[in-house]
Amino acid sequence: MVEELVVAGAALASVAAVYVMAAARVVKQYERGVVFRLGRLRPEVRGPGFTMVVPFVDQLRKVNMQIVTMPVPAQEGITRDNVTVRVDAVVYFRVTGAAEAIVRVEDYRFAVLQMAQTSLRSIIGKSELDDLLSNREKLNEGLELMIDSPAVEWGVTIDRVEIKDVSLPETMKRSMARQAEADRERRARVINADAELQASKKLAEAAEVMSEQPAALQLRLLQTVVAVAAEKNSTLVLPFPVELLRFLEKAQQPVPQMPPVAQQPVPQMPSMARQPVQEQLPPVEPPVDSGPQGANSGQD
Question: pTM (2 decimals)?
Fold first, then answer.
């Protein structure tokens, strides 16, 4: 009799051990357990720790409540300003409702991935290239709202969405490089011109001060000579005054010669001595022919 009781107790203990082993479940700290009893969802969600289910009747499904990092494959699209780009992103999400994540969607990870790809393509088509390159924070917020709207019904909350990289065609990269180079050169020229303007004003003020004291120019010349000689150069450069060059240039110019006197016409004064003598004597009247009387008188 005692032996039968011992055998029955051992059998009962073995059955209890098998039952406990079949019904025992352990839920980790970052997990939650959703129980289905004969296919129907139990209202309570099992917390972390040791829990029991009815073997062959209940089914326990564990849901990870940690933040999941999911990379979004690169999506190719055309921006609003007709530029072809490839953009990839990363999505950070977590499950807030374990029962909804299991019941309302077949695979919440795959659903979030597909929604992220669709939203990323939509963002590419609505944005310009400059926004994708420099205004990513605003695009990240818009992308997060587009993914989070349907994900809330699935018991999933989108924590953050980040655009990782924007790939551009090589021709566009070269064009942007030329544009940046031209902009840098423009700013360098503006800065150089501003510096020249300020320097010219300071030089004008210095020249005005030196003009009041002529010795200041000589002192400045000596300072320049000292600065050049301090470098231990074999060549010494001395500035040459421009005034001296102008003086030498004027000295080398030939003196203008007067034209010869012979070439100039000399006015002749009227002279009485050069007039003919006939003009000074009174005119002589010719003899009067008296005819035969004259001849006879001659003969007489």
Answer: 0.58
